[in-house]
Amino acid sequence: MSSACSDSFLDINTNPNTLPTASPNYVFTNALNTSATNMAGNTNAQGSNEIGHYWSGQWTQSNGYIISTTQFAYNFTNGDFNYWDGYYDNLQDYQFVIENADTYNQKFLKGPAKVMKALLVHQLVDMYGNIPYSDALKGVGSLAPKFDDQKTVYESLITLLDEALVDIKANAFASAFTSSDIIFKGNTSKWAKFANSLKLRLLMRQARISGRDSYIKTEINKIVTEGSGFITGEDVGVGGTGFFLATAGKLNPVYDRWGYDANGAKRALNNYPRLTQYLVNSLKASNDTLRLKRIGYATGGEGTTAGVSAKAEIAANYVGVPFGASSGYLPAGSCALGPSLLIKGAYDKPYILMTASEVQLHLAEAKQRYSDVTLPGTAKAYFEEGIAQSFRVLGANVAGAAAFKGSKIQNYDWDATTNKLDAIAIQKWITFTNFNGLEAWSEYRKTGLPVTPQSIQVPDTKRPVRFFYPNTESGANQANVTAQGTIDAFSTRLFWDVD
C-alpha cells in the first residue's frame, strides 16, 4: 500500500469544491461557442432561438412527427423551456474572464466579455422578466441571489456596454491571442460597433413605453457622439471556417441539430422545422421570391446538388404549413429550412448573433420615431439598406432589394407605404427569419406585427408573452422566485410589452 500512496492522497486540506484555474482566453473561446450552442440548440436540446422562430410565426413543424403540444398548443409549465440554467452557467464564464483578465495580462478580453454578458442578460430578461443581476454570478457569495427589476436591468446593461466600450478602446488584442476571439479575431473596432449595435437594440426594444422617449434619444445621441458607429455590411457570427470542423461535436450547432452529422447523413430532426404558410404566402404576395428561395427549399427539400432544391425553384413549389397543423403536410410536400441556413457539407458557417440588416432597421425605427436624434441618415435610407443587407446575409442577389424601390408594394416601397413603423416591424420580422428567432418573437411581442395566424391547436386567442421561471430556480431560490408574485405566461407581460 505504501508504494501506491502519494502526498496528495493524504492531503486532507485540499478543498474538493475549489476548481482549478484556467487562462481567461481559453474560457472566453469556450464561452462564445457555448453561447452559440445555447441559442441554437444541439442534437439533444432545443435552443432559445428555435422556440422564438415558432412563436413569432416563422416556423412550424412538419406532419412527419407527432404534434408538439408544448410548442403549438402552449401546454407548458415551469418544467419546460429552461434556458435559465444554461445561460447563467455561460454567464459565469464571461464573469470569470472579466474578473481575471487583468491578473493574466489579458485586459483585451474584458470589453468583449462585457458585451457578451450584456447580450445574454438582455435575452434572459426578454424570456423571463425580473431576474437576478446585481446579486448574481457571485458563487458562494450569494447562493440565493435577489431578483432585480427588469427595466433596471436594461438600464444597467446600457451602463455595462459603456464600460465595455472604454475597455475595448483602451486595450488592443495581443497578436498571440487573436485566435481566442472566434467572432472578430481580435478586431476591437468591430467589438465597439457590436457594443453600440446591441445598445441600439436595447433602446429600441423600449420605444413603445410611454415617457421613455427622452431617455432613448439621449442614449442614441451618446452613441453617435462616441463615434465607433454600428455594425454595417457584415454580421456578428461565432466560429466559422477554421473553428467548426467536420467532426462529431465540432459542427456548427444549427447544422448539427437540423442538418447533417459529420459524415453527411441527415439528422433525425432534418424534416422537423417547416416554414409557415403565412411566411411563404406573404413573401409570394409581395413578390419577395428571391429571399423566399434562400429562406426555404422548395417542396422535396435539398437536391443532389448541395444548396439547390430538388424541384424547380418556382413559386408553385413553395408550400408552407399552417401554424400548428397536425396533418396534411408531410415533409416531402412542404418547405424545409433553406440554403441560407442549411447546405449539405456546409458544417462550418458562422453562427449568427446579429445581422447588419437588423441594425439598419433599428436605425430606421429610431430616425422615424425621433426625427431630432443626431443619426446622420434618413429613415428611408436606413430602411432600404436594411432590406439590402437582408438580401446579402440570405445569399440573395442584392439587386433584388433595389427593385422594391418605386414598386408601390406596401411595407417594401418606403414612399408608397402608409405606415412606416409597421413596415419597419414587418421587415425586421423577415430579416430575423432563420437567424434569430428570439429577437423575432421579442419584436413580435413589442409590436404585434405581423398579424400572424393563431395556432390551429389553440381554440382561443391567447399566446405566450413569456416563460415561467424554471423549477430548478424555484427549488434553489424559492423565496426570491415567490417574491416575483404569480406569473401567468399569457398575461404577465414584460416591461416593454405595453399591449
UniProtKB/TrEMBL annotation:
This is SusD/RagB family nutrient-binding outer membrane lipoprotein. The lineage of its organism: Bacteria, Pseudomonadati, Bacteroidota, Cytophagia, Cytophagales.
